[in-house]
Design brief:
Elements lengths: L2 H13 L3 H14 L1 H6 L1 H11 L3 H13 L2 H4 L9 H8 L8 H14 L13 H11 L13 H8 L8 H12 L20 H4 L10 H11 L13 E8 H4 L3 H8 L5 E7 L5 E6 L9 E3 L5 E5 L7 E5 L7 E3 L6 E5 L4 E4 L11 E3 L13 E2 L1 E11 L3
Antiparallel strand pairs: 1-12, 2-3, 2-12, 3-5, 4-7, 5-6, 8-9, 9-10, 10-11
Length: 388
């Protein structure tokens, strides 16, 4: 029985009020099929709130959102998020977002539910503010107002002060001027930055695919160096953004997590050959854009069998077609050049249906590679200059 069938069986058991069976199936999915849940995150997340029963799955999803809030907040479905779901997310102390950004998204969510509100804020009446306040009233107490910078309070919160209780707004103004003076409003604690996870990762390898020697070679390609950097004098740090075996192998997951990140390296490990194939994109990945992207600094590469002494580098030849951002982001992930290096899947899983491609019809720089292949794992790193 495949995972999708188990999930549907859980839904049916819940509808028939077979609560014990439903809960067992729910826990089985979390323990044994976490990768599938991550791959089909959007479907699962909206489904559990539609049925409003699966508390364990809700926590599983909210744990992911807390670490990767862009999955929901930057998705096209954000404004259709049920109020109960938004409340559940905003309740999280470990939500990894600036409080002012959370406020912006709350206003976006509230105004989208009232399409008759004037587009220009200066045209709003008191009745319009009351309408918005009524819509977001369950979420307003969850904002950590006293941990918003003074500039953001004035630029972002003040224009909407009429949706706040007068006491809260007065206390907030006083706090900005006299932070040591007590206020009547409840001051919620700041969101927790997840630095406590770092010690557990110290002994973990930074990558499951490449090593420091690989990064040194790739860094030298970025800087157009005639000879490779050594692992000791590499001027760049490779910061992990995404790992398929951890975050999921769906194309949409790539776009949700990597959105907005520039200067990135995509690394794949080919199933069956252990060849490493990758590409460098100096531009920001943007899930809202569609079409060809122009840059003369991108390149693709391979390490045959993963061997650092058997590498192939192919720099972009036509900058106008250096990368392509597909409009079908549930099927296509990173796409370099004219089909030279593409990650894609018809079944929303890069490891499954051999739709990934590495082929160069012009210079045959990958003539020994499999034309189409599945992968064992893939990673995306942000390449950052080390501080001196």
């Amino acid at each position: 029985m495949d995972t999708r069938t188990i999930y549907e069986l859980m839904i049916v058991a819940n509808k028939l009020k077979f609560e014990e069976l439903s809960e067992k199936l729910e826990n089985f999915l979390i323990v044994a099929n976490a990768s599938w849940l991550k791959t089909h995150f959007s479907f699962v997340y909206h489904s559990i709130y539609k049925h409003n029963k699966f508390q364990n799955l809700e926590k599983f999803c909210n744990d992911i959102i807390a670490k990767h809030p862009s999955i929901i907040f930057e998705s096209t479905e954000f404004t259709s998020l049920p109020e109960s779901a938004l409340v559940s997310i905003l309740n999280r102390d470990d939500l990894q977002m600036k409080e002012s950004e959370i406020w912006d998204y709350l206003i976006k969510w509230g105004t989208s539910r009232n399409p008759t509100l004037p587009e220009k804020l200066e045209e709003w009446s008191d009745e319009n503010f009351t309408t918005l306040k009524t819509t977001v009233q369950q979420c307003l107490p969850l904002i950590r107002y006293f941990h918003v910078s003074s500039s953001d309070v004035m630029d972002k919160i003040k224009p909407y002060k009429k949706i706040l209780d007068k006491q809260l707004w007065n206390d907030l103004k006083q706090y900005l001027l006299l932070p040591d003076r007590p206020v009547k409003s409840i001051i919620l604690p700041p969101r927790l930055i997840l630095t406590q996870e770092l010690p557990a990762r110290i002994n973990e390898p930074f990558s499951t695919i490449i090593n420091k020697e690989h990064t040194a070679i790739i860094s030298s390609w970025i800087d157009y160096q005639p000879t490779s950097y050594s692992s000791r004098n590499n001027p760049y740090e490779f910061q992990l953004i995404l790992r398929g075996s951890k975050d999921g192998f769906a194309p949409r997951t790539f776009w949700d997590i990597c959105h907005g990140h520039a200067n990135t390296i995509v690394i794949t490990k080919v199933k069956g050959t252990n060849e490493i194939i990758g590409g460098f994109n100096p531009l920001a990945w943007d899930k809202a854009k569609i079409g060809d992207m122009d840059t003369n600094k991108s390149f693709i590469f391979s390490f045959k069998g993963g061997n650092i002494h058997n590498s192939i580098l192919s720099r972009v030849q036509n900058s106008k077609y250096a990368l392509f951002y597909s409009g079908l982001k549930d099927k296509w992930g990173p796409w370099f050049g004219n089909d030279e290096f593409i990650m894609s899947s018809k079944v929303s899983d890069f490891t499954k249906d051999k739709q990934n491609q590495c082929y160069s019809p012009i210079d045959n720089c990958y003539e020994e590679s499999s034309d189409r292949f599945s992968i064992i794992d893939y990673e995306v790193f942000k390449v950052v200059k080390k501080s001196i």
